[in-house]
Amino acid sequence: MKNHAELSEVFNKDEQRVNWHDETLWFVRQKRDKATHQIPDWEELREAASQIKHNVLSDLGNYLEQFEKNAVNNGIRVHWAVDAQEHNKIVHSILKRHGISQMVKSKSMLTEECHLNHYLEDKGINVVDSDLGELIVQLAKEPPSHIVLPCIHKKKEEIGDIFHEHLGSAKGEADPQILTETARIHLRNTFLSRRAALTGVNFAVAETGEFVVCTNEGNADMGAHLSDVHIASMGIEKLIPKRKDLGVFLRLLTRSATGQPITTYSSHFKRPRPGQEMHIILVDNGRSVQLGREDFRNSLKCIRCGACMNTCPVYRRSGGHSYHTAVAGPIGSILAPNLDMKQYADLPFASTLCGSCSNVCPVKIDIHEQLYKWRQVIVKEGYGDKKKAAAMQAMAYTLSSPKVYRLAGKAGRWVMKHTPFAVNNPLNPWYKQRDMPEAPKESFGEWYAKNRG
Amino acid sequence: MTTRDKILADVRRNQPPLVAAPDLAVWEAKAQAKASLLETFATVAGNVGSRVVLVDSIADLKSHLIIPPDSRVLTSLPQLLDIAKDAALFANNAPHEMENVELAILQAEFGVAENSALWVTEKQMGTRVLPFICQHLALVVKSADIVPDMHAAYLRTQGSDHGFAAFIAGPSKTADIEQSLVLGAHGPRSLVIFVLTS
């Protein structure tokens, strides 16, 4: 299994693509800035959102019960899943009961986290992702690389090739307008012929038992309203106490995500339409454990806007796939180690700790501080990088003795001057994408002793 | 122990001490100067790809719609039944029957100035899928029914009860291919908002 640094190298092979990726995401970040500056009390709004989420986390047990009660009263069937496996089983059992073998899905990062598509495909159920970006990566047999912009790592020519192969668009066609139209026609047939639709949930309201799904494309609504069975999957942290809290979150979500004032559609599902079945699956999958980690529980406030990814200097240059987890970027790097500390031990180190993520987060999660804290936990638990640990020990020894320190400096300067190949080679990570500086003739200490001593 | 009880027990064991939620009354009290509401609404609507047309009456809006011959039009406004040969009043029909609707003209309950979103409830949709499946959508809102922001919007919906309702802001869109904006992803290719000024 390759780690973040190794996977970044794969992405970094194409320098032009990296530059495009970097600039495009930074442009999205700038759009976010422009949108937020139009709200004079933006900072207070972030604070309010953070406090609402704090209240949710501190009373989550009661809110879950309240939501369940109200949703059931509304005619929605509520299921509980302790982990990904149970979630997938529930989805499959609902489909099986109806004899359904084809399902259309709108964006749900939770189902990515649960690897639902693979599970259902193994059971002979065909799943079509209907968000355009998700459809593209699904056809390319790849996971999404960004939670809001799933195929931001792909160029339009590559998408044209994929559509030519799978959807029959003209060879060499790479015009976004024409490719989108191709997908529109293809998916319209899908929406009209699927009896089951699965959607994600952006917010679930404890007070009313309703849930809100936000999209720009309208794909969640096309799927849900044309289906006999609507399944909505949500993490238990997606709850908010009251309906009016949506006022705070809908103002923040899309301005932070893409710089839009709101998504095209903010759909409020409260009751199934007559004759329709509506299901909600409440999924834990490690969230209750994270809730118990005092230093990391704030990560559960996340509303999945992706602002931390768009601003992150590491994410922009390493690509979403380098994080080898469903939710990439800074927020993913503090969520993933909770699920598997060993497998994701590299992620909290994939950061410069510059703090930009925390500054743009609409619910004020202290992301970069949690990255730093995860590093300490990971090293303490013995999952740290062994080479790095040895190097740090050597460094500590060198810095603790003036004699050794001076000798090491001298040796270093000698090596760089007389045997530059010893450092100017691919084994030295500092040499990659960089030229090593010319070594000075003497250290400052030596110069001082000679001239001022 | 059921999964439900296990999750609830795990959550209760691990949740931090109770912290009160903030009072949002302060946000509800903040409202922009009323005079600029329509102007803000129209500017933002234009930015997200909607077309805003100010009209004096429902009959007035007919001249602003170009309807290709033989296209199916559904509306909730009886005054508009003569707008096309195949125009009909909407009803709560089977969703798949809406597949070939070219244009839907529906009443919105209110609009929101800060983001140009319009609140459309199930009652005003007739069939839930209609405002999403039609090729083009027209929404009608009274200028007096434009509220400043989302806090005011949810205050306004307080006490109402709808099986389904949505804020709709602009035509369906995507920028998933290289961030190039394309209007008409899966839903309507255009949204025209008629603001009744009288």
Structure description:
- Chain A folds into three domains: 1-38 and 294-384, Fumarate Reductase Iron-sulfur Protein, Chain B, domain 2; 39-285, Rossmann fold (3-Layer(aba) Sandwich); 392-451, no CATH class.
- In chain A, 52% of the residues lie in helices and 10% in strands.
- Chain A has 21 helices and ten strands.
- A six-stranded parallel beta sheet of chain A has the order 1-10-7-4-2-3, sandwiched between helices. In chain A, strands 8-5-6-9 form a four-stranded mixed beta sheet, sandwiched between helices.
- In chain A, a hairpin with a 4-residue loop joins strand 5 and strand 6.
- Chain A is globular, with a radius of gyration of 25 Å.
- The termini of chain A are far apart.
- Chain B is globular and about 65 Å long.
- In chain B, strand 10 and strand 11 form a beta hairpin.
- The N and C termini of chain B lie far apart (62 Å).
- Chain B has six helices and twelve strands.
- At the A-B interface, helix 2, helix 3, helix 4, helix 8 and helix 10 of A face helix 1, helix 6, strand 9 and strand 10 of B.
- Chain A: Residues 292-322 form the 4Fe-4S ferredoxin-type domain.
The largest beta-sheet of chain A arranges its strands as: 1-10-7-4-2-3
Which fold name is given in CATH as the topology of chain B? Answer: Rossmann fold
How are the strands of the biggest sheet of chain B laid out side by side? 1-12-7-4-2-3
Range of strand content of chain A: 5-15%
Structural class of chain A: alpha/beta
CATH architecture of the largest domain in chain A: 3-Layer(aba) Sandwich
Q: What is the CA-atom radius of gyration of chain A, in angstroms?
A: 25 Å
CATH first level of the largest domain in chain A: Alpha Beta
Question: What would the average pLDDT of chain B be, to the nearest integer?
Answer: 94
Note the overall shape of chain B: globular
Biggest sheet details of chain A: 6 strands, parallel
Total strand segments of chain B: 12
The total domain count of chain B is: 1
Distance linking N and C termini of chain A: 55 Å
Biggest β-sheet strands, sense, barrel of chain B: 6 strands, parallel
Q: Helices and strands of chain B, in N-to-C order?
A: HHHEEEEEEHHEEHEEEE
The proportion of residues forming helix of chain B, as a percent range, comes to: 10-25%
- Summed over residues and divided by their number, the pLDDT of chain A gives a mean of 95
